[in-house]
Amino acid sequence: MSVIEALKNALPKASVLATEEQCRPYECDALSAYREKPLAVVLPETDDQVKQVLRICKAYQTPVITRGSGTGLAGGTLPLKNGIVLGLSKLNKILKIDPLQRIAVVQPGVRNIQVSEAVRQYGLYYAPDPSSQIACSIGGNVAENSGGVHCLKYGLTVHNVNSLRVLNMDGEEYIFDEKDDGVDLLAMLNGSEGLLGVIVEIKLKLLPKPEAAQLVMAAFQSVNECAEAVTAVLKQGIIPAGLEMMDKFSIQAAEDFAQVGYPTEAEALLLCEVDGSHDQVQVDAKRVADILTAEGAYKIIVSQNERERVALWQGRKNAFPAVGRYSPDYYCMDGTIPRSKLAYVLEEIAKLSKKYGLRVANVFHAGDGNLHPLILYDANKPGELAQTERFGCDILNLCVDVGGTITGEHGVGVEKLNSMCHQYQGAELEIFHGIKAVFDDTGLLNPGKAVPTLHRCAELGHMHVHHGELPFAHLERF
Amino acid sequence: MQQQFNQMAEQIKEAAVDQKTLQIVGGGSKVPLKNDAELLSMAAYSGVLSYEPSELVITVRAGTTLSELHQVLAEKNQMVAFEPPEYGNSTIGGTYACALTGPAKPFRGKLRDYVLGTKLLDGQGRELNFGGKMIKNVAGYDVSRMLAGSKGSMALVTELSLKVVPLVEEVTYRIEMPECDAIVLMNQMAGTSLPLSGSAYYRGYFYYRVMGAHPKQTNRVGVEAVDNSIWQILNPFKPVLQPGQKLWRLDVESTNPCIDGTLAVGMGGTRRWISSKNKPEHPYVTLWDDRFLPRHNDGKGVKKIKQGLKKVFDPHHVFKDL
Ligand SMILES: Cc1cc2nc3c(=O)[nH]c(=O)nc-3n(C[C@H](O)[C@H](O)[C@@H](O)COP(=O)(O)OP(=O)(O)OC[C@H]3O[C@@H](n4cnc5c(N)ncnc54)[C@H](O)[C@@H]3O)c2cc1C
Ligand SMILES: Cc1cc2nc3c(=O)[nH]c(=O)nc-3n(C[C@H](O)[C@H](O)[C@H](O)COP(=O)(O)OP(=O)(O)OC[C@H]3O[C@@H](n4cnc5c(N)ncnc54)[C@H](O)[C@@H]3O)c2cc1C
């Protein structure tokens, strides 16, 4: 019997997709430049079915690539030819809401936005809000430790998860709870990119909805001034709920697309939102406006009501598709840098843009140093994708060189394996492989993702290999 | 300092060869030494390595005392949001190793939430760097958060990068009421937009602490403003006990009803301090005395994972047991 037959015997008919046509939609995630048709796609409806799938795949030594909504931007769900895709979209129930305790227990396929919608009636919400929140799943959020505009103040996914129920490749169940003592396994499962276990249940922390929020928009004549202004706000003791920056190209594209009144002549635009109690917001919005004016903003708009606030956000929220209109394809990078290096990094990116002959727009989560350069390219032009990838890789290396990191929120997946070799040395990578082996000694869970083989880094010239002797020589190299 | 760093790495390497156990000790250690353990003292390995207030990040050597850390931050009007308890000469390394967090935990988060990166010496004496200085970083497994709570059993933590926050003004209020009512009320209040940074129950009073600008609380029935000292009494909590009584720390759901023998309720209801002779029947209980006694409530599977991880970080078993 083949693994597909075994899966078909164990699961409802509609849960196993194996034809070319059925598998096609699962060939890639939102990083569509990488594609592969899986052996089959399995869509279980219950925990027990997930366990069965894992046991069957273990018996057949079939790799398992867990998938939430497939909105990942780093190729984390890229299938393997000989592997199955374990789609969790049918595990989509909110199991429990306890407004007094401020928690929700959900299955992994629940979409991010659904949680806030379900608890709105209690004046609560779920804080992490990736821009993909209408589509991405909570399971995917945990696996990627996703963040959103509100990260600086309210944290990433890891800060908002109280406990996880996880299955290993044998289908055995683990519970990782914030109340556990000793090493913090719950923290490590967040951001583990489907390599350590399949997350089947999540207890989320809910927060009270802030009473009020106000947005301050400020325009600057230079990027540097804008970056300095951000620094000044934080230095004065204000932690904004959102702090977003756009460069000239992004401002023009966003305004052209959404017509919200952004000053298109500005070199840099800052959107700073404060939230909290009515009293606090009034105090903070005024202080922010004063600080930004003192720092050289030549135009300031403070939202006077909810409608204005939402309207002013529209440009930023649509920045990616807006920029996308200028080019057949775009590639979104995700490095982080210390803010003090912003002007330097943007200059270097501009130089690289000239070198590669590819345009770049910069959108930036200014509060937490997360840069999202969008590289415009045309996939139909031979060689242009490869150029784009090299350009992207150069940007990430630059981020590491100024003290930052290669990914703030999108994860490593298959996309940033080379860049990982720039950020981590051999010994750390060995530890990562060791951790993987503790959780998954079969190596069947999402193989080849997130942590590069030592061999790969050696080939890239980032690792010293003495007499051809590699550490972990017994590990498969590909 | 580099010399001391090298010496520590050497000490670990030698212990690996000689099959010795090392007991890492921070400041005014409360750790009972195993007879056969050799001391690895972190106390002198201290000092701030970098501090950029506008980036909200500080990097310190692990032997830095909490009092030094607080002072450096206060000069720039900042603080560590997790309010670690201070026991004499507590070091930030020992605090991290014990994952100790104070009263604001349900509101501002716990220690590991503010860890951005660590530098370590593993059980082979290798220098390792995990995480970094960025608030957002999802490259590789989150080892620097995972090791919070590892209690000197996995690796020697030599440096820590922490996210810091602005110092805030805080006001404490209290209301006299029965404990069971207070537990419900503290949960209800945590679901409102009042900017809370602490709530507790102690000796007949429900206490809550509010940050920054907020509506005047003394208009509420029975509320009085008091000073902030209650949070020091509860953190670290060191009650005088009757002979034969022991102090237990229970971690529970915030809405857990009253428990017999409770001396204090902290952290929005999630922390209960109990005095009793015997171990309370409860899944998350720690005996709290002047000795370091780790809790062993792990299920079989979780235990296996922890033991596996210990082997990854400390293959020659240089550091003490989990
Ligand atoms: C279960 C428990 C009970 C406690 N009970 C009390 C109590 O009743 N009274 C009290 O005053 N305090 C108590 N403490 C607090 C604790 O021991 C100290 O507060 C400690 O955190 C202060 O730092 P220190 O530098 O003195 O750490 P130490 O006491 O020196 O060390 C604490 C632990 O951290 C490890 N460690 C220290 N530095 C490092 C490092 N750089 N890298 C890796 N590991 C390190 C040690 O090996 C040890 O396991 C308790 C802690 C625990 C976990
Ligand atoms: C337009 C757009 C905007 C975006 N904006 C943001 C943003 O603001 N912030 C941000 O952080 N990200 C953003 N993303 C990226 C993406 O949405 C997030 O990474 C999201 O968390 C992925 O969720 P998903 O359910 O789609 O996961 P998938 O793409 O299906 O999977 C992602 C990874 O998680 C693993 N995985 C999924 N579910 C599980 C599970 N239950 N157990 C174990 N492993 C699992 C997969 O194996 C894979 O490695 C954006 C993406 C798009 C397309």
UniProtKB/TrEMBL annotation, chain A:
Domain FAD-binding PCMH-type: 34-209
A GO term, aspect molecular function: oxidoreductase activity
InterPro entries per UniProt: FAD-bd_oxidored_4_C, FAD-bd_PCMH, FAD-bd_PCMH-like_sf, FAD-bd_PCMH_sub1, FAD-bd_PCMH_sub2, FAD-linked_Oxase-like_C, FAD-linked_OxidoTrans_Type4, Oxid_FAD_bind_N
Pfam families on file: FAD-oxidase_C, FAD_binding_4
Cofactor(s) essential for the protein: FAD
Highest taxon in the source lineage: Bacteria
Keywords on record: FAD, Flavoprotein, Oxidoreductase
Stored PANTHER family: GLYCOLATE OXIDASE SUBUNIT GLCD
Protein name (record): FAD-binding protein
Organism taxonomic ancestry: Bacteria, Pseudomonadati, Pseudomonadota, Gammaproteobacteria, Thiotrichales
Encoding gene (name): glcD
From TrEMBL, chain B:
PROSITE patterns, alphabetized: FAD_PCMH
Superkingdom per UniProt: Bacteria
Pfam families: FAD_binding_4
GO MF terms, alphabetically ordered: FAD binding
InterPro entries tied to this protein: FAD-bd_PCMH, FAD-bd_PCMH-like_sf, FAD-bd_PCMH_sub2, Oxid_FAD_bind_N
Signal peptide feature range: none
Swiss-Prot/TrEMBL keywords: FAD, Flavoprotein
Every FAD-binding PCMH-type domain range: 1-167
SUPFAM superfamilies in alphabetical order: FAD-binding/transporter-associated domain-like (SSF56176)
Name under which the protein is recorded: Glycolate oxidase subunit GlcE
Gene giving rise to this polypeptide: glcE
